[in-house]
Description:
Blueprint: H1 2-55
Amino acid sequence: MDKSKSLPVSGxxxxxxxFLIFFYKHLLAQKIILSELNWISESIISTAIPSRxxxx
Length: 56
């Protein structure tokens, strides 16, 4: 009886840790994507604004 009771507990302990690792990887991926988008938008702005001033 005791062994069967301890098994779900260990499974429950593994569950959140796996979820946290997945969540951390997901956040890390989002952070990388956001930094890439930020860099792309900055490069677009830096190239678009001077051309606007030149056309004026």
